[in-house]
Each structure stands twice: as C-alpha cells, then as structure tokens.
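Chain X:
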Amino acid sequence: MPNSPPANLSLPILIWGNGACSADDTAFERFLTNIASYGFIAIASGAPQGSGSTTVQLMIDALDWITGNAGYGKYSTVDTTRVAVAGQSCGRLETYQMRDDPRVGYLGIFNSGFLDSALNGVPKWVGNYPVGHGGTYSEHNGGAFGVSAVNWLSWALKKDNSKAS
C-alpha cells in the first residue's frame, strides 16, 4: 500500500485464504505482492510468519476492517464496491463460505475442486496448469499463477476486457 496513493487511484480489494488455512500472512507473499503491484489491495489472514490455523471469520474481519478504513488516510482510494475473495487449497473452503456476503462480487478457487452444491448456477472458469498442488505461488511474482490471478482480477474488478481470455 503506498503511503500517499495518487488521488486518481482506485484500489479494488482481494481477501486471500492461505493454503492449509495457515495463519502466516506471508506464505503467499510473492503472489500477493505481484497482485498488489497492479493496483489491488491484497489482504491475507494471519500475522507475518504467524502460526496456527485460520477460519472464515478472519476473512470477514479483514473485509470489515478494510471497509471500515476505506476513504480515510492512506486507505482513501480503496474501492469497497469491487471485492473478490479467493483462496488456495484449504483457503478455498473459507472462500466458499464468503459467497453469501453481499460485499463480495467474485470468488477465486485456486488448486482445489469445486464443491457441487456451492456453485450451482454460477458462471465458472476452470483451468489446469501442470505444476502440482503447490502451484507457482513462491516463484518470482507468483509465476504463472500470479499472471493468471492478475488477469482474472483485472477483468473482474477493473472491467479490463483485454484480460478476459
């Protein structure tokens, strides 16, 4: 987050659920830092180098916190009308639980199967990149998964149709 964001900048929000429901908010640092560098505010559950497990309540708390601070100080350019929630592996279970929150416009399910009843009637995009369950999150800028996530978020939250395919 820039200390003094430009007045014309509008930051959509990504709330992220870590794999293994890990409470280490730096576990996906390369991936999330890359997303933030494209003009998104990215929030992961837990503390830096934290331990223990997370629950969906931490995602709710994060969304409550950022929406409560949006419009003030360095958060003056946060746009609470453009929110995505996403997660990897166990973090996707927390993501599914956020689907009924009216503040959330998009869900991103990474490295996981779909729960049959969770997404009935919802448009889906399914992709497979053959790197295994751990993905490319720890590679430079989150690797191929970082590119895919930025494209998805740019399309969904910034309405950049050039990123739709």
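Chain Y:
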Amino acid sequence: MAPPGIKYSQEPPDIENVLKLNPRVNTTASLRPTAITKADKLNWKRNADKGCSSCGTNKYENDFRDIKHTTLSERGALREATRCLKCADAPCQKSCPTQLDVKAFISSIATKNYYGAARQILSDNPHGLTCGMICPTSDLCVGGCNLHASEEGAINIGGLQQYAVETFMKMNIKQIVSKEIEASRNNAHKSPIALLGAGPASVSCATFLARLGYTDVTIYEKQDYIGGLSSSEIPQFRLPYNVIDFEVQLAKDIGVKIVTGKALHKDDLSLEKLKADGNKAVFIGIGMPEPKKVGIFKGLGIEHGFYTSKDYLPLVAKASKPGLYLLYLFHLQ
C-alpha cells in the first residue's frame, strides 16, 4: 500500500470486496422437465426459427416484402456510417462502376444529412436506389472495403446507399436543371433526341442529356410499362416497382418525355423514320432480346420443360408487382 497521503496511479484491488461480488453458486443441481423448457423457449424466443420443420410450405407465399439482410433502419444506418474509415485512396470508389464517392455520401449519412447523401449518389448515378438494392456489392465496393478483415466486417455500402435514397424519396423533392445550364442553352439544345427502350440505360442517358440542357428528349418503349429488365425480370421483393417509378419520375421532372407502346420495327419505329422526324441523335438501349444458350440446349423450349431467364423471370416479376400483374391479365384477355 502507498504511504499515508500518497496515492499511486492504480491501487491493488481489495480482494475481499471483489470476492463479495461473485455470483452465488447453488448447492444443488437444477431439475426442469424438457417439455416445460421447450414451451418456455417458444414463448420467449426472439429470433426467427430457421429450422425446416417450422418453415411451412406457404410461409413466403405472396410475401414480396424487402426482407434482405442489407436493408437498414435509421439506427442501423447511423451505426454503420460511423464505422467508415473515410480512406484517402478509397478502394470502394475504385471498385464502383459508376465511381460513386462512397466515403462522401457515408459521411453525410453519419451527420444525418440524408438529402446531401442522396444528392451525392443520384448526381453520379440516376439509378442510385436501384443499385443500392440489387447491385452485387460483395464483388464491387464492399469487396474492396479495407474493413473486410475486421471483426465487424466490411461496411454495408449497399444498405447505406438504399437508406439514403429511400429517405430522399419520401421527401418528395423534384429534380431540377441548374440555373447555369438553363442560362447557357442555345438552339442546339432544342434538337430532338430519341432513345429506344425505357430501361436503366436509356433513362440514365436521358437524365444526363436533360441535365446538360437538352429540352427535347423522348424515350420510346414497346411495353405498356417502364423500367425494362428492372421491371420485367426482377421480382418485387428485390426491386419494388415504386423504386423504378421514382427514378423515372426524376427524369420526367427535368423534361424527359416517355412514350409507351412504340417498338423498334420497320412498321412502327425505324431509324429512318426517326431521322425523318427530325431527330438529331438516336440512342438504342433495348437490351438483349434473347438469352444466351449453351449448345446442348439449343432447340429446347417451354414445351419441353426448358425455361430460360427470359421465359421464367418475367412470369415471376409480373406476378409479384401489382401494376404489372394487372397489365399481364389485361393482355391475356
């Protein structure tokens, strides 16, 4: 012990007082019937039972909610955002196909500036919410995160991106063209531009054209709905239709026009006709109409029990998305 009046930085513990805090040990063993223990477990269990015996055959029938593990609440988003290292030479940004400034929007989330985070995301990627929900981040930004080997693992970048843009979507703020762009417009910006296909490629292209000041941008879509593959081949629980509609509406906010029921065809829309109508440029974003097939499967079709992604996924997607399901039934009649 220290001399009277002198204290060391750390006094040795009073072992008798420490031992008084020890838990009391029972002198007899606990005896409880297994049946009662099982009943109590079911009564107090908080987490979902993943055992096959409790799944049931219809547990997820007609359940198309967003239940993926990366989806975050505000509390989860704030906790996750504070973990980011804000790397100077961030590998997550280098791994992103759209080169999003990941650390910048995560920093905004950490300070509850959700508008700033969404603005950062959507400025670089008009489909920021779609990518936040379905992008294979484990192969891209998350795969390059410097926290990958830490106990908590890599940052949930996709979940943070989804949370920021979903929060912005609820703000109902329209996209606008900057005043500087509006002031610098000339006759060239009035030139008609046509885009074929209302999928992600055309919507992104049209959005950037409108942001650059072009005022006569029109997207033509052969279906009665918009979104392309995002709508027709991705089920509701992975990508809700209101997300696609929100991103398309942002393009409409700055003057992009969309015409449905028009296809690239010699009897409908041809490149010659579009050129004759005065279009100065045409962007073709119709995607891949036919799936790739391995040679051994050529000649096989639905009648043989062989389904490709183009055969199967549209049935699942349309059945899971209320608006598309009604259109699908209408065409069947």
